[in-house]
Amino acid sequence: MRSRGVRGWLAEASDAVISVFFPAGCRICQKLLTGACRIPICEECLATFEAPAVKKCEVCGQALEWMGAEEDEPLVCRACQQKTYAFERARSYGMYEGPLVRAILLLKWERIEPLGAWFAERLAEIAGRERDTLAADVVVPVPLHHDRERQRGYNQAGLISKPLARRLGLPHKAVLLMRTRPRPNKQVLTLQERWESVRGAFATRPGSQVDNKRVLLVDDVLTTGATLDACARALLESGARSVLGLTVARATRKPLTAPENGSL
After folding, report:
1. Please, what is the average pLDDT of the chain?
2. The pTM is what?
3. For the chain, percent helix, then strand, then coil, each to nearest 5?
4. Distances from the Cα of 246 to the Cαs of 70, 89, 185, 219, in angstroms?
5. DSSP β-ladder status, 214-222 and 242-250
6. Is the CB of residue 94 less than 8 Å from the CB of residue 221?
7. How is the chain split into domains, by residue range?
């Protein structure tokens, strides 16, 4: 613990010196960064990330534009009314729009671990506020296919999930879940293609201990919910008690319900 504290202090001191002699610009707005911060984004841009206070589905966190119920009744989106998802609950820090999109792309294509840790801190705050509904036994990142991870050199979800697990005091099991089939090469997928692309695409690794565990799945973006759903089904089939989801951002598009000709 002491050695980690010393290393952290030295890293901060080094960053402070570098920021004085080699000032850089915010990677989003290009404003000069004057503080000793390891995150290459200014405070003003960081402050724009959090989602506005709107009514959300109590299951998947989707923003709701309709009341749909009396004030004292649960608000549940159409997809969750139809029990589309296998995960028990999902929450996101912000909406996938504006500067937050650029920040997530930075994390996806550049290994900026301090940014992943900053997002992890935000997700830990959500888990703290909803500790009764987001209680878990283990933290697992949504995996990349091994070819994609080898090409990129890391899994961006892991840059968030590892520091998150540390903050929550939970085991981090990055190898518990694997993607057995790669994402299609097509750059842009329709909503239906998103569901089809992840159908049966995830599995637990042989020998993984998941029986009766409450699993907290972590990813960067929740778009349709299809990926979290497919991961949840693989975990539940292997004996997990429940699966919860935490993502940095949530797409604003209307979610697609599961295909009628089969569930994920």
Report:
1. 85
2. 0.84
3. 35, 15, 45
4. 27, 9, 26, 7
5. parallel
6. no
7. 1-47, 50-250
Other CB atoms within a 10 A radius of the CB of residue 239 amount to 13
User: If you count them, how many residues does the chain have?
Assistant: 264
Helix (H) or strand (E) holding 45: helix 43-46
- Packing angle between helix 226-237 and helix 191-198, nearest 10 degrees? 20
Given a contact cutoff of 8 angstroms between Cβ atoms, the answer to whether 140 and 161 are in contact is yes
Query: DSSP string covering 190-221, please?
Result: -HHHHHHHHTT-EEEPTT---TT-EEEEEEEE
Token pair in block for residue 210: 């998941």
CATH class of 50-250: alpha beta
What is the tens place of the pLDDT at every residue in 235-250? Answer: 999 999 999 999 999 9
Each residue's pLDDT tens digit, 44-73:
999 999 776 678 899 998 888 654 445 556
